[in-house]
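Why run this: before we spend reagent on co-expression, it is cheaper to look at a predicted model of the complex and decide which construct boundaries make sense. The entries below are exactly what would go into the expression plan.
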Amino acid sequence: MKRSILLLAVIFLLAGCAAPTPAGPQTLRVMTHDSFSVSEDVIAAFEAEHHVTVQFLKAGDAGTMLNQAILSKDSPQADVLYGVDNTFLSRALEAGIFIPYKAQGLDQGFDAYQLDPEYRVAPVDFGDVCLNYDKAYFAEHALAIPQSLADLTRPEYKGLLVVENPASSSPGLAFLIATIGVFGEEGYLDYWRALRANDVRVVEGWDTAYYTEFSGGAYSEGTRPLVVSYATSPAAEVYFSEGALTEPPTGAITAPGTCFRQIEFAGILKGTQNQELAQAFIEFLLSAPFQSDIPFQMWVFPISHEIKLPDSPFTHYAEIADSPVSVPYTSIEQHRERWIQEWTEVVLR
Amino acid sequence: MNTYTTRRVSRLALHTSRLTRYALLLFPLLFLALFYFYPLTAIFGASFAGSAWADVTARLFSTTTLRVLGFTFGQATLSTALTLLLGLPGAYVFARYEFPGKALLQALATVPFVLPTVVVAAAFTALLGSYSPLRYTLGAILLAHVFYNMTLVLRMVGGFWANLDPRLEEAARTLGASPWRAFREVTLPLLAPALGAAALLVFVFCFTSFGVILILGGPRFATLEVEIYRQTIAFANLPLAAALGLVQLLITLALTLTYTRLQARLARPLELRPQWATQRRPHKPTEIALLLATVTLLGLLLAVPPLTLVARSFDGGLRYYAALFENPRRSIFYVPPIAAVWNSVRFALATMALALLLGLLTSLALYRQRQSWLLDALFMLPLGTSAVTLGLGYLLSMSRPPLALRGTPLLIICGHTLVALPFVVRSLLPALHSIRPTLREAAATLGAPPARVFVEVDLPIIQRALAVGGVFAFTVSMGEFGATSMIARPELPTLPLAIYRFLSLPGAVNYGQALAMSTILMAVCVVGFVAMEQLRPPGMQTF
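The model came back. Tokens follow.
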């Protein structure tokens, strides 16, 4: 009996040590975050053209992914990293995990989002974090839709807003940065004091805010008609109703100075053994097939404005913010910790 | 002559038993070294490399840290007390009475253990109402902790209680003791080892609580684990995160050491009885009333929230279930539901097998040893380790030789086993300690070799504890999300991973599919639990 147990244990452990290690020379490894997605045929076309297998490593949320890339920079686990946004860009660039590559695609006039003058990363997509509102609620109460961040502190919007914690949520951080962009370092804490006095609710993440607190979504449980979400969320409500809705039950507020634009970048990881393939992959990310696939897979906008998207709820209802709040990405990384900590003291304590 | 032979025999036995002990421990320790200490050293090494110590220590001993530590302790203590208090009547009823639907109720009571926190939060909101004053309070945290951990008390204490001889308490009653006194002075001390084991697990679980605190408690509350996560992800302050992780680890170690020292004193050999001798149908009106009250409480607390989710998953008829089988956007990361079920079940069964095997080896080695408390505590450590720290450790160390296991199913199984192992050990040790040594000696005197003694004496008695450990190993693996999301290949998603993927986009179909997937997860677990209750090896029905 005991002997057979030992034998079993040996087999288990041997099986463990003898596990195959993947990644031959013709495998391109792409590290990305949980929200990444792409269509089968789009990636298959790239694989066929370059005789390569693309292996995606999903490493948690965007923050976890970047931490991992930085921690393992001496022996990189992938050739390409996709999904660093402008709130994390500084951290990635300072850690020196990327090698420069000036993508051909960037010459075609869509390098307005190219934030790094050394071309260590290429912009691939963007999404606007904006307030969403419950159309029915505002109609029923004959309430005007707020048109600025300052509006939110007015008494008629008391107890209506739910936001995400910037310490743990990426839209939450984006919204905090927007308030800093609008009211400045000297004014944003007063603004948040006023929001707190106006009974803002803070929850941990987007899913709790949207599904448990917000009242507007088709399946939302909550009672608050204003939430921090994305400018594309109303379009997603229609698309994911599978024909039950033709008009979104929610709207995005895209007025000037109310949204923050998240730009996502991709870069070639230092230490890659497949530099040429990695470069080809960056070009592929900026090419028409991938760019036009982005909206339907990830609900954000392609970086290229030359892309013609097929008719769909996305093209009908997804909005682009009208002059979003601009805060230099270098200052975000530099001040992030202090901003979040000051915000925590004012809003949560 | 006679004395001489006995002494020689016993010395020989002692010698072989020490050898066996080391042999038994070889694999569990090797496992721990490779899949716990190695990744942990990797992440701590990388975190502390070239860090500014003065800053780390200043932040570590700040009032913020003390406040977080105070809250972490306070809520864990309250949660554990409440879980024990509410769980004991249920454990008693499960242990002492036969009643229809018992197996199903027990299975349903274990379901909360596997449910993703976001989904549970939605269920509680739907039940309590959006305006309930309980939301985002300490009360909500406690309620959720009771909801998640009650099954630990029900199964671990109830399982042990079921084999306690009721005649002991009856004797006390005959001698004139009140029911309360008989319980307090006879049953409670005998239950102490199992109670302690369950309390320790519940406490460590609540102590390292993360999702419940964040989602149900809201951002105002922070445990050490939450702070570690924030320092790691939001601020990339890995040295401070690692230092906090070390604090959490040391506290777990101290707690476990206290418990294992205590356990050595509490444990006593018992005359265990098979369940047919300890369980009966209730007949007195008071018994029936007690049974009904307990079952109602358990039903309201544990079964109603999950059933609300099930009901809501059918809101669109079978629409959301049908949608699970479609991939209209042709995403390469689409997960067919059957594949997710198959992955989850596969990982859970393998985890169960590995955890039971390693747990059995560990427990057999530990209960024989006098000074086993240090080793014992070692096997509890993974439970007290920050998931985000260990997850990063896995990513770092398992992506390169000599253990380039990233993306292999084996790594997921080993990761799950690491968390499941403490449950198996905690469940087995009280049972092993309760076996009278005379039973083994009698068998040995009659000429049975050690292996036969184990099979004929130990195994039947610990069989129920093995089943309890197995259920928890299975459950831990079915519900695990955090580490899996970091180390799993996107092509091998589990049910919880699929649920979270749906919850990351707006829209009715996404939410509906998350509910449908949660329902499938619950159904698979209930079927698994009921099957495990039925699948006893023949001839082992007695205990």
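Chain B is about 75% helix and 0% strand. Chain B touches chain A through 80 residues (CB under 8 Å). Bring this page to Monday's planning discussion.
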